[in-house]
Amino acid sequence: MHRILHFYKLLFLTTFLLSSIFLRAQQDDLTKYKAVSSLNKLPGTVEIYYPNGYKQEAVYTQKILEKAMAFYKANLNIDIPVSATLFGPKEFNEFAMEKWGRPGIYNQFLPFMAAGPPAVMCLPVASGSALENMVQAGIKQDKDTTISPWEISTRLIAYVGIHELGHVIMTELEVQQEVGWYSEFMANYIAGAFLYQISGDAKIDDSNKESAGGSLTPTNKHFGGMFTGSTDNYVWWQASLQKRVAQMFPEPGISFLYQLANLRNSQQYFDDLAILVAMEQISPGFVTWAKNEGHINELDEGKIKSIEKEIKDQVNKAIKNRENLFTAAYSNKWSMGDSINSTVVMNFLNKWENNSMDTSFFSDWAYYKYNWETKDSILKKLKVERSRFAKWKISISSIVSLKSTDRNENWVTVYGSVNKKDVKGINSLTNFTQWYKIEKDLKISFFKEFDQ
């Protein structure tokens, strides 16, 4: 294990991705980020940007990330652009300062991942970060620990940095399922595959549990509780997931990922116990682990018995072959929906055409274009856009009400065109495709448009 830590010693200095922030950026070149203009660049397969005085840290970071990416390319056929930006406190506060959750020592100077392309790891490289504060608090809590704060930080950094990369690799492998603990487990597993290859150990060694698990008091061990309660609870959960990862090397190893990719190609699960049973069928031991760690109770065991036959049949069929040529990231099970949802959309478009929109069509919060916003904010933006045109005539070629049966959601898709005249008298014709999600109360909670 110490061979790994030698690489990581100055890797990220004081970095802790306890509260990871995933920013979906569309930049195709890291130089489009404002911060980069003030940083130095270290060329390589993984480009590193760093502030003055941190070249040594940049070199170490580049070595380990390039080694990880080479492993994922050779073993998983994943070859995507990845860059890293090392922020000092000046750059971080100016360009990337984010505070999440309650004010405190854990929500300051946080790193984040921009999914790209390219995928960019943005990491603080100076004192004052959440990691340093977390370690100091842990030492005060556990005064008998024999591990130095610096060593604890180094070990946490070593795992967590590659863990975040694991989230990106998971998306590329198309193994994602919308279950919270599963997503974190898979990032740990993918990171563990790399760590095992270079050290023979898929997790940080047991001495680390003095900070990561042994001295912490979880507030919610049950499935669904990973993202509730205290910070201690989240860190304890990560330690629990690592236990299961460690049990799974060297077997089933990489093959486990390919089987999960085949499963996700045809089956999507949204329930903690359903995905637990599916993973148990692929690699036995998950149910025992969940029971020993307190993630399931007697009621859960009864539910598992009631669903395991159906899920096992699904898994056995899915992992043999990919059912579909492509994996639908959102939903691959659709049927015709209720026409009343189409009526809701047509009424909304009529109000838009006549420039008489109001908030009655929207949920209190809805997804509009690229963000979740309040209905008042959305209405304000729609009115500004509509006010640019004196005329707006909509022609609809097709409007279809659909139901996503695996998600139990109602959607409406519209294809049409709009003949419009702006306030300067210039006419234009635009073809559009629109997607709407309609809730049970017949309110719009998602609206996105693609123009031609």
Could you explain the architecture of this structure?
With about 450 residues, this protein is of the alpha/beta class. It has 3 domains: about 250 residues, no CATH class; about 55 residues, no CATH class; about 120 residues, Nuclear Transport Factor 2, Chain: A (Roll). It is built from 14 helices and 13 strands. Helix 6 packs across helix 8 and helix 10 packs across helix 12. The longest helix has 25 residues.
Strand order of the largest sheet: 7-10-11-12-13-8-9
| Sequence of secondary-structure elements | HEEEHEHEEHHHHHHHHHEHEEHEEEE
**Number of separate strands:** 13
The percentage of residues in β strands lies in 15-25%
Using only C-alpha atoms, the radius of gyration works out to 25 Å
pLDDT below 50 for ≥5 consecutive residues: which ranges? 1-32, 97-110, 204-213
Number of domains: 3
Structural class: alpha/beta
Name the helicity range.
40-55%
Q: What would the average pLDDT be, to the nearest integer? A: 79
| C-alpha end-to-end distance | 55 Å
Shape: globular
Largest sheet: 7 strands, mixed
| Number of H- or I-type helical stretches | 14
Short description:
This protein has 452 residues and is an alpha/beta fold. Helix content is 43%, strand content 19%.
